[in-house]
Amino acid sequence: MNSIRKNVVLLLLFLLCSCNHSDKKNPSELNSDVLSRYKPKNYVEVKHPEWSKNATIYEVNVRQFTPEGTFKAFETHLPRLKAMGVDIIWLMPINPIGIEKRKGTLGSYYSVKDYYGVNPEFGTKEDLKALVKKIHTMGMHVIVDWVANHSSWDNVLAKEHPDWYSKTPEGNFQPTPWYDWEDIIDFDYDKPELRKYMTDALKYWVKEANIDGYRCDVAGFIPVDFWENARAEMDEIKPVFMLGEWESRDLHRKAFDMTYSWSLWDKMHSVTKDGKSLAGLVEYMAHDVSTFPKDAYRMTFTENHDKNSWEGNQYSNFGDGLEASMVLACTINGMPLIYSGQEAGLNRSLKFFDKDLIEWKNHPYAAIYTKLFDLKHKNQALWNGSYGGEMIRVFNDKPEQVISFSRTKNGDQVIPIINYSNKPVTVKLNSKYQKGTYNELFSNTIHVFIGDDIITLAPWKYLILVKQK
Fold this sequence. Notes:
Elements: H1 2-23, H2 32-35, E1 57-60, H3 62-65, H4 71-74, H5 78-84, E2 88-91, H6 125-137, E3 141-146, E4 150-152, H7 156-160, E5 184-186, H8 192-208, E6 213-216, H9 224-235, E7 241-244, E8 258-260, H10 262-272, H11 279-291, E9 297-300, H12 305-310, H13 314-318, H14 322-331, E10 335-339, H15 364-378, E11 392-393, E12 402-409, E13 412-419, E14 425-428, E15 436-440, E16 446-449, E17 454-457, E18 462-467
Parallel strand pairs: 1-2, 1-10, 2-3, 3-6, 6-7, 7-8, 8-9, 9-10
Antiparallel strand pairs: 4-5, 11-12, 12-13, 13-18, 14-17, 15-16, 15-18
């Protein structure tokens, strides 16, 4: 009897081992249906317009651009902007400005009185449509600044639909909580009726004026699902381009093509003006490569209307490191922005609520941007999102002073080497994987890399090396 039990146990053990062995398949033998759930998926589901893949962007402060401050007067600058390499014209808000609680004599563009109207300060609806048509004729595109988070106190919606606004505990209208924006009142996006109204207004200008998309003010204050639906409805009319004033991954999935790289500005400013080390900037680049969605566009800049209006100007914010910061912002992963007057050496903060004409003059910065934008158009390594090349760190023996990296795509390669410090430097690059012949973008000199190459740079100077094919 014991021998029978023993044989039964051995048989069961044999069968159990056989089953376990049969389940342990070689990974290469696994059924494709099993593996499908483990395949990587792109986070970004937005389909970028084809024309945005190597685009640059320019922010237009219509009020301050010309003595007239109109759409028609601005048209005369379009040939110059086109020649500089600008692809996207971003018009600051074009809607009528509220009068109640207005700041200054002309008020804030971001206090909207009528979402279906045009600010008479700039011209008429027909003038706007003519400007858009002119921009398109010249091979550029145009987006309009949109303020969906709040309206002016005297917007008709405040009287017709007061329930569409957030309220204080006492039941009164309020500016966006915790902010001192006294000239506006805050919307409540828990209301489906408000969502439909705002979506219809967004669609109206795409249809009526044939604009190509929007820059959306404080986009992160508004629920992401609103933007995702609005984007889908606009895309049914035409492929649009959406820029969100925010810096967050979630906005990129189904709503926005591009968000702000506020953190890059902060890291550059901390080095150039606060004397901090390059560690923060290196960390930014590391996080850009490893944590930000590959096909999410990032807008890079040294100036925009917020920075210029409230935090100084390009010179006060970057000092002697301004030019190096401009070059870095145009070669790092992202779409470079120019703000009105930057290329003319704008050296002051423009007034935000009153007239303050930009002084237009020839300036070396225009030539720098022209060179960099031309390279971006032609060299796929610098294209936007997944169209461009990943930033690969080129290690060097002076990491406390020098930022050096390489970007490669489809045979194109660019290596920026920037002395991001106020001291001269002779640096050895670990360039054994970058061997080859390069043209320097600005001097057109030839550089041959053989590995462990040595470069000498003056304070805040740089080389942009473009590989010969």
